[in-house]
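Re-run requested by the PI after the first attempt was lost when the workstation crashed. Everything re-entered from the original request form. Ligand of interest: S-adenosyl-L-homocysteine.
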Amino acid sequence: MNKPFVYLIGAGPGDPGLITVRGRECLERSDVVLYDYLANHRLLEYAPPHAELIYSGKVGGAHNREQGQINDLMVAKALEGKVVARLKGGDPFVFGRGGEECEALVANRIPFEVVPGVTAGIGAAAYAGIPLTHREVTTSVAFVTGHEHPDKESSEIDWEKLSLGSGTVVFYMGVRNLPQITTNLMAHGRSPETPVALVRWGTRPEQEVLTGTLADISEKARKASFKPPAVTIVGEVVRLRQTLRWFDNRPLFGKGILVTRAADQAGEFSDLLRAQGASVFECPTIRIVPPEDPSGLDAAIASLPDFQWLILTSVNAVRQFFLRLAHHRLDSRAMGRCRVCAVGPKSAAAIREHGIIPDLVPVDYKAEGVVAAFRELDMAGMKVLFPKADKARDLIPLELAKLGATVVAPVAYHNLPPVALPPEVLEALERRQIHCATFTASSTVRNLAELVGENRLLHLLEGVTIAAIGPITAATCRELGLEVQIEPEKYTLEAMTETIVQHFSR
Ligand code: SAH
């Protein structure tokens, strides 16, 4: 049996990038993950595929499992000889009952490690643009639970000391008790004019900030039906937000954007959009799979020395071509003097990774642009290898043949639709949380339509801004009845992101 071990990991306040390097390492080696409501569930992707994922959620008082049950489960799983990752929102030792969990481990002689996390008070303040301390404003900060009912006589909070003793005060779990908290602070000497900020779902794309003063924040929160989870930041530093706000004023903040790329390629585009503040929903609409019948590609590979040109029009083409070479125990040397044309900077970069400097990278990435680039060269009598997707247009081979070349265009991969739409994407579409749907290839539109049905597609995307990377993709959108509002001039993800930003800044 393996040795029991528990990692008590702080997941950070919400933005998945705010978990520590150590926290991620520990998740990666876990057999069981026990995660709570406030830990961003996207972090579960770091758990290995075999790991058992158990929700131990607590939602504002309505405890899904009682703390005792959580402790028992954690202990039981560890005693089975498993590595347990106990993933908790923020920091495990800040209002997280991590102390009690450790006590249970000690009682059962289970070894453990505590991985600290960015606590909500720190994370939410940073993402709200509020420095908790500032040389010219305040020199101290206190973290206080707002959960305790402040009326009760046994209150363990010394309101007098708290009101006057700490410059900045951050309350956790204090939304419900906001009227009592503000009343208490004012009654014990804090000025009613003291600025206050409520930060809900801090560091996440859903972050909401409400500001006011001790005198009026309760009423404002009531009117806005402001809900937990939120931290309440009290102190003069709150004023700094006016000038230091940086996160929730990004151009795409609050915008839901659908990314429909192949599962293993969505990341880069999603990151570009997230950097602009967008809330990204990934909906892989393409599965890239090797050809069912690779004989055409194999025959071409067997006669590689006969070719003068190899054209690779996408990162997928590059990947699948080199995978097939590797299958035959060959590498880039097999291409000898064959020249290489890469379509688009991403394909060019992918080719360079194989140690090959592309001879031709057409400025225009459309098939027409590729043909135009070849028109500048003498193609008469040239033998060209063009490994392509099964559904690719035939323009390049046809036009190159007209220039006198012999083109061999074997199928190198298939673009298949995925098996199902991810439920969270469907839900977001139905709840109208998606403001813009992006399509980076005709197949992404077609596969999405195939996946949900054409009629339903129009219904789901009603009122949603459609962005297409280039004219061909845009034409496919229109064929399916979708009106395209965003079309970048350059067919790159960067240009697409910029055009989306411009559209939504208008
Ligand atoms: N251990 C956690 C705190 C758990 S107590 C930590 O260190 O952050 C739960 C309270 O944390 C919530 O009621 C809320 O006050 C606060 N909280 C957690 N995540 C938050 C977030 N993303 N934004 C604002 N407040 C948050």
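Saved to the shared folder this time. The chain has a mean pLDDT of 92.
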